[in-house]
Amino acid sequence: MRDKQVYLDNNATTMCAPEVTEAMQPYWYGAYGNPSSMHSFGGDVRRDVDRAREQVAALLGARPSEIVFTSGGSEGDNQAIRGTLEALAGRKRHVITTRVEHPAVRGTCHYLQKQGFRLTELPVDGDGALDLDQLAQAITPDTAIVSIMWANNETGVIFPIEEIARICKSRGVVLHTDAVQAAGKIPIDVSRVPVDLLSISGHKLHGPKGIGALYARKGTKLVPLIIGGHQEGGKRAGTENVTGIVGMGAACGMARRYLDEEFGFVRKLRNRLQEGVLRGCKGARINGKNRLPNTLNVSFEFVEGEAILLLLDELGVSASSGSACASGSLEPSHVMRAMGVPFTAAHGSIRFSLSRYNTEEEIDYVVEHMPKIIERLRQISPFVGGREWHGTPLPDHSH
Amino acid sequence: MWDYTKKVKEHFLNPRNVGYIPDADGIGEVGSLACGDALRLMFKLDDQGRIVDARFQTFGCGSAIASSSALTEMIKGLTLEEAEKVTNQQIAEYLGGLPEQKMHCSVMGREALEAAITNYRTGETSEQKKLEGRVTCVCFGVTEKDIERAISENHLTTVEEVTNYTKAGGGCQGCHEEIAEIITRVTGRPPTEEPVAEKPKKRLTNIQKIQMITETIDREVRPALRKDGGDIELIDVDGNTVIVGLRGNCAQCRVANFTLRDVVQAKLREFVSDELTVVEE
User: Fold this and answer.
1) Are both A146 and A59 inside the same structural domain?
2) Number of structural domains, chain A?
3) How many Å lie between the alpha carbon of B202 and the closest alpha carbon of chain A?
């Protein structure tokens, strides 16, 4: 372990808050009863699960009965989309989503497409924004569900879910939103925004991993993914992950209390980082407009993202990249490509995502070292220094 | 996080021979900004025709920079006849191995070296050379020849492996069928889904299993370890647990765990049984 550890990858996962782990403690040993049991040893635990459900519901503006605990964001996304289609029993076979969804939604939609469902993937513009007219035009009587994320994990770009929900509602189409990145960072209120299904994850808001929740508006028809038990009102079988549920509840409770801080303190830190990096590094550009208060996705020309990450890692700084090399594929991230970020810049894209546990000092440390890292890699790069390049010509990517 | 060896990290953090030789005897350039990695390799010869100086400039990830650095170290002191025998495998081995998906970094090194030697001999620039032959992968500008060579030099049997080694097929994937055809032509067999489908399906007796393990270690593992001054001994086979002892340099090696899991165990799983686990005595 290094002396210095600056964690700026909170869109990947977050530290489980000490208050959360503390709340979880009793359920490993003393309070290990099964919430479904008749005896009070289990019944007491049932009450704690219900309290957690209330805490999650409160963060979202939902009723506790509309919350189903899941194993995380991916399960929620799968359950929402596949459960809706199954409930329709093939009567509607069209799905609408965007080109920039998290793999949990994107992969599910591509899977369904292979199964014979029709899929529309809405494009985004250079700022990462959707054209809502295109959404309205894409909806047909055959459209079963629209799944559009609340905020993007890579760029932090926030989609206008309120307007999207109105369009879907007026057309009688079920709307699911992956709110994994939005929850705890910006206000969510399903009593005001008419989404039907909304998935969130515990570990993205300082809760534990392996727990999440799906909000399903009362009356939304869903076939459960996991069958074989009466738990969660018959919507998700299996003995409850009580420890995780209690942690998720505590995390949502804290997230609600700290929402203002996310908006204020975290945004201030993020802006400090953004201004510092742009000031210190030439050839840097921000990806995405109208972003979450904690996210900065920035591209550096003529250097490659994975190399930047490795040098940051040497300094104890954790971030992530949309570069091809960092992801193990050969093309830059689908989000960067959908936004039309040139390959030259997409390969050098770095995502910093902050949390309320970061400090000004940490940000200044990164701002101080970033120009040196970029400079160091540019000195190795053959494209800097004004020499003619004879290598393979740029491939034609117009197709 | 990539599983880079210490040597890859070390060459990435302290790259040798970075720079530009204004009066280079040979310059080779491969890759492009759009592809995500690019390498310019330059060398200077002495009056005996040996490489006295080799320098590089690289745009790319950690393993691309490390591969370039390793290559310049490897070719210094060699004649061009010796240098042109350097394979991408040797570059990878010099670095203690590269993750499978990063093998194209070593291929890029070999290609740049070749381009630089051609440049010295014929005055051709890399661009002119690159235009030769049919381009199979439009996204990454990989020719049929490049793919054929990677297949035969590295014994590739699947489209995925070809992508790992050459990048071909890693973009729009429109050329996957064509790559499969090239594999069939070069190897005489259509691509396998899994690399090397030689595993026996039936249950092995313990004696058969031990015999196959011994053969696989002799054939696939020991030669590589001996090259680094190490050795390996089969101690026992207990069910599906293979107990081995590392000897010589391997015994003190800090990447021994990596060797056990990623080399010995991987080879045994490939050639004997998927269920085997390798542990040290």
Assistant:
1) yes
2) 2
3) 34
